Amino acid sequence: MSPIKGMDVSHYQGDIDFNKAKADGIEFAMIRAGYGWKDWENQTDRQYYSNMSKAKRAGVARGAYLYSYALTPEDAKLEADFFLHLIGGYHLEYPVAYDVEDASQANLGKERLTEIADTFLTRVQNAGYYVCLYTNLDWITYRYDMNKLKKFDVWYAQYNDRPTYNGQFGMWQHTSKGKVNGVSGNVDLDWSYVDYPSVMKRVGLNGFPKNCGT
């Protein structure tokens, strides 16, 4: 299949006109649901519910992600519970992702970071979701034990003409300086190499009943 064009968004993009984005070739959006876990009300992304609603009305397929501040596996469990609260009730055609890249986490060590990612992703996966790990070349090479995380899909970030990571990944975030009609300023752009909507509907993940068709 040909790569599918998408973008990932949060409140930093402000009020998005998804109809214009769709007309400009955007087929899917990875939408930030929130960040951390300590204050659910105030750590929900300010544009999350609006973005989810507007994307659906415009016919833009949706995935979601949580930005992590977890420093321990217990923190990761709490972040997973917060994320499950936010994504519950939606039918999401694209993966739900864990974004672990904060400076506060960078020196936790490979064993701890791997355990944090595994804890979150397993907990969300066990709730019936197709999960993936958002990561870049440095983190996937030096900060994770990918032998322990290879059961999970990867949303890979590298701002380059082509990715240089030789491992498997389903989506590639290839720029942070994209321009899309309906979005003010720069926006991250992505390519998807998997027909995720068919997977979700065939297997029955991300809120879809099994074999619900297309």
Compact overview of the structure:
Helix content is 32%, strand content 23%. It is an alpha/beta fold and 214 residues long.
Description:
The protein is of the alpha/beta class and 214 residues long. The protein has helices spanning 18-23, 48-58, 73-87, 110-126, 137-143, 146-149, 196-203; strands at 4-9, 28-35, 61-67, 96-99, 131-136, 153-157, 171-178, 187-192. The chain has a single domain, classed as Alpha-Beta Barrel (TIM Barrel), CATH 3.20.20.80. It has seven helices and eight strands; from the N terminus they run βαβαβαβαβααβββα. Strands 1-2-3-4-5-6-7-8 form an eight-stranded mixed β-barrel, surrounded by four helices. α1 (18-23) links the parallel β1 (4-9) and β2. The longest helix has 17 residues, at 110-126. It is globular, with a radius of gyration of 16 Å. The mean pLDDT is 96.
| CATH-defined superfamily | Glycosidases
Radius of gyration in whole Å, from Cα?
Answer: 16 Å
Mean pLDDT, to the nearest integer, reads 96
Please tally the helical runs, counting DSSP H or I stretches of 4 or more residues: 7
CATH architecture label = Alpha-Beta Barrel
Furnish the topology, listing elements before pairings.
Blueprint: E1 4-9, H1 18-23, E2 28-35, H2 48-58, E3 61-67, H3 73-87, E4 96-99, H4 110-126, E5 131-136, H5 137-143, H6 146-149, E6 153-157, E7 171-178, E8 187-192, H7 196-203
Parallel strand pairs: 1-2, 2-3, 3-4, 4-5, 5-6, 6-7
Antiparallel strand pairs: 1-8, 7-8
